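#lab-general

N.A. 3:47 PM
ok so I finally got the sequence cleaned up, no stray characters, all 241 residues accounted for. can someone with queue access submit it? mine expired

B.Y. 3:52 PM
send it over

N.A. 3:53 PM
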Amino acid sequence: MVELKTLNLKVGYGVEEDINADVISPRQVLIVRHEDILDLSIQPGELRENIVVAGIEFDNFIPGSLLTFESGAAIRLTFHCEPCKRIAHLVESLKSIQGKRGILGVVIKSGKIQVGSNFQVQANKFPILSENPYERFLNFIIKIPTGKVVTYKQIIKGIGVDNSYLRAIPTYLKKTSSAEYPVHRILDSKGYLIAYVNQQQNKLEAEGIKVFSESNLLGNLSQSFVDIQNYLWEDKNIYLE
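B.Y. 4:20 PM
back already:
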């Protein structure tokens, strides 16, 4: 991480030159209150935040708020950043930093901000994203349109969790049996169909998605797959409204 006097915020991206920037991520930017890091005796940057702000009351610094800077740049706050082992050495316990690790956000208007920039906060401007990854998973997959698919890796980005959550996606799928959720539109990260999704091939083909089968070395049919380049769904505006 590098300390900068000026940041260029890009809509549909995040912070310019940030390695973690991603168009569909709800965690493009991490913002913390200066008052919180003072209270915790933590130096700026140690929580791996992108921006430190001062002057916001704790009760007004909440997900769903809109931060608008004097340059016109704007950030939608999505959900609290979860305390994790990366910062465990900074505090007596992770419980002590609950709610003070900062709030994640999405850049909804481009512009430059710099040290000393003024901004305003408007609460309740957007729906609050759940702090529960499984609930964000449900909220994400219900948006997948007919005739389109997503992959495990895309879900990980879209719900804003670490890559380690790839192991959790099969569990989420098994847990999601309600017909209102289009789990049949989910493929593994290489585009293969998932064995424990009922009638997946039939449901995909009914939506006009071509499903292919590949043969193994013995010439027998093995896994079925979709050419994801033709059917992959990516909504660049998913968190902009």
